Fold this protein.
Amino acid sequence: MNNQTRTNQVLLLASLAFLALAAGFHFNLWGRPAPRPDIPLVDPMFTSNTTWRTSYAELIRAKADLSDFDCYACHERHKPPPMHFDTNNILIVPKEHSDIVMHHGTHNRNNLCFNCHDENNLELFQTRDGRQLKLSESTPLCGSCHGPTYRDWEAGAHGRTSGYWNRDLGPITRLDCVSCHNPHSPKNFSRPPAPGPHPLRPVRTIAAEHHNPV
Amino acid sequence: MSCNCNSNKPGCCHSSEQGVSRRNFLRTSAVLASGLAALAASLSPLMEMEDVPSAEKFLQKYYKELTPEEMAKVLKRIENEVERQYGIRPHVRDLKPMDGVEFVYCLNLTRCIGCRKCVHACVKENNQSRNPEIQYIRVLKMPHGTFDMEKGDHNYAPESVPEKGFFYMPVQCQQCKNPPCVKVCPVHATWTDSDGITVIDYDWCIGCRYCEAACPYWARHFNFTKPNIPKDKLNPEMAYLGNRPRRQGVMEKCHFCVQRTRAGKYPACLEVCPVGARKFGNILDPNSEVSYILRTKRVFMQLKEELGTSPRFFYYFDV
Amino acid sequence: MTQAIRNYCLFLWRCARIAFVGDWRYYAWMGALSVLCLLGLNAYCKQFAHGLIVTGMSDEVSWGVYIANFTFLVGVAAAAVMLVIPVYIYNNHELHDLVIFGELLAVAAILMCLAFVTVDLGRPDRFWHLIPGLGQFNFPASMLSWDVVVLNGYLLLNVHICGYLLYCRYRNRKPAKWFYIPFVFIAIVWAVSIHTVTAFLYVGLGGRPFWNSSIVGPRFLASAFTAGPALIILAMQVVRRVTASPPGVDVAGVALDGAVPASLVHFEMLERHLPEMASVPAELRSEILAGATVLEGNAGDVVCRQGESSDEAYFVLQGRVVIKREESGRFRITRSSGPGEQFGEISGLAGTPRVASAIVEEPSLILRLNAESMRKLMKPAPMNRIIHSRMTERLMITDRALMTLRGIVQVSMLINVFLLVNEIFKEFYTRTAHVASSHYLLLGLHGHHALVPWIWTAIAFNLIAMFLLVLPVSRSLKYLNVACVLAIVGIWIEKGMGLVIPGFIPTPLGAISEYSPSLNETLVCLGIWAFGLLCYTIFLRMAVPILQGRLSHANEQALYPAQAPVAEPAMAKT
């Protein structure tokens, strides 16, 4: 008797529990995946293959406005422009060329315009061994000093490449030194970095905590 | 009902047998019905499934067992699916490794400035999910004087890079010669091809994530949910083992851009690198850049060399 | 042949039927488990639809509480062998009755293991890629493929052994040794292999120094042989309690007396239920008759009492007699004997005090033989064999058996703690770069210490359990139970979350991402545990009456246990 009633009670309770569950499931009361925080799409500049600079050769190829390179619009032909130095014997860049930051090499050894430019013909370069090169052929000029780097560049180990690694299937695109390097300040590559990772769950690195404690 | 039934001997409880059995029947039906209702309702989340595998997808054969005709059909199906989902007709190819080619990657730690452009070019090229985010390349900011990766910072966000006193080390799939991930996969869903690229058959992976646990380079990434790629960001030039859109619950990783490299091109991360720190090529060709680098550069290393994974990814310094 | 199949189907049908019958406690227990199962199923459906994103896992910590539970349960399954070895190799009779319960626990544990692995898969719809022949099975290279083989093999082995032994008991047959003993020995080796293989799953990963340690395998075995038998100790007490009746009630009946001398007719009655009687020749029968009497009893009459000394053995000719044994203040039904079955023969032959009381359950006719007649009856080889084989057919979970298990748990726990100390010494004394994971687990790493309270709880539990087990105090069941619960919880933490999670922290690239299971993930785990307990309860519900002799082929109406008087309504109709 007692057992019978107990069983009835238990089974009734079980039925009610099942019905409550069914309702809970139906209305999806718990365990819904939380909405994910928005991740902004990355700025296209970070996925662009374009170089930071455009070399003279590329400007010619692109048929761009080359008036900036018309030296003798201001300078006088056959008259080497004078150079002025401050008391520390550092070249004073004339205000007409204020966009140029002279920072090629250490100890100011290379901060002379006519280490590269031909003072007699500003539309040409001249190498240390006296050869004259067109403005669009600057790479051998760089190579005349930076031998090992030039060798690496020739082998494809220095500098950017694109196109085909398999030359049978297509060409490789090489760039001139000045496509990346500013000849007057070749080592400055400082750029804003692209956004960091957005992990699924919070992640910290040990270094991050050491250096920028949160 | 006063009888204490100790057994169901016939005749016991005969006085109210009918009433009891009717009540018992009702009782059972109530429990059964409510139980079934709860069971049915518990399955309701399945209705929210967006990507119900068709019989065709469910039964799709293993990559290596597909005949050329079957592969053609599968590629067509994938193109249709992608078009339906993204509104762009992709060009999906099954690219095989070339003879006499073994790929090697060299990364110049002297040059790398940590700009993370490779990370995002890779995402764009390889149709990785944008949210949740999957990236094949992780760039570590390391203090000078150590290779202890625990000292590396993954989340650096200064105004500009490079920062003084640090170098940057991008890590991606090292395409090991002795890959732990391939060894542990229970279903052969990942393997190393003759050109040295370890690929994944996304339609064969069961998502056990054993390879992810096995990889010492944290190169493998899992689709914890349906990948999410904006329609206008889809790269339509695709390969079966490469950058075709993945599905929920499968593993993916860097495959040296097979859709590009097996067609003779450079990988996307290399082309975007603004400082030319990334070098890629055929190690079997003595005139390739990578052959030149491994021949002439004196300092190079394989990450976690002590594990014997023998990566095809070399880090070097040249100054 | 068809008859055999029909009988087997009938067996399955009756087993299935009995699973739906019980008293209110049984229904309440099963109802609660079903509710949890449904909660788990619903949570899993959400995971199936949305992906593993609804769990707490990530690329950084790519395995979580699913694999942790899997690892623990493989150990529980493997531990069943610790009951089998003493019985089959060292002939320990105390544990004999527990073997089937241990193996059923192994079956339930393996079912849970398989469920935990399945819910951990990103694409469970592709499970068929794992089936050799149909899919691509990376055997023997992948340790996971080994695990698939050994787990399923172990499941089959145990299902076969349990199923066969239970069916034989149901048919009242002596099991053919060649049909199960070889499998028992295979299962012994196999049990070690399932846990070793599971350890190798971790050990084989060179990129995870926390796991890549050769001591993990032995540690797994030691902890398994602690937690498994501890779980069996607890489960067996539950079985004992559920099959018990209040003390004193049953033996209150009138002692049965008024025996009349037996006649040859009674031997013929016995022969009807015991065909082996045919081997007893007529002259021997008359000799036996000298020491034979017949008792007629009604429900509640007591045939013999526990503790009495007597040299008599009994055969049921008609009706049913239940054998109850008092221990720890409760009565347990150890056997229910029907027509043709003997009782009281062990103490009768040895002249020792009775280990149990025999009470008439329904009006019965009982043949009583004195020791001399009994020995004569056992002279013919077939009779000797059948009577001997039936001597072991009873369900007796004795305190001594539990104490034997205590010995196993005791030694295993000592080894387990010792191996843990070894591991901790190696990590913290050398302090290589690889200490990071252990540091995270035990002390926290750079302000991250989610696991620290857990692991110290586990270590404290393990140590308390160890001391309790080593001290004589755990000879009392109360303290033994406390020790078992502490050991199980401690090991569950230590080799579950405590082993799986630190392996991922820090990541191979040195990042730290902590893991905690999500609500959904927890519900799935609860659901699977409930499913496993549901399976084990059903297995016990079937096995106990079979072992007691209540559910047998001969016993046409499967009797429900005395404390479960309710007839299943749906079944009552059929």
Summary: Residues 105 and 190 of chain C are 16 Å apart (CA to CA). Chain C touches chain B through 69 residues (CB under 8 Å).
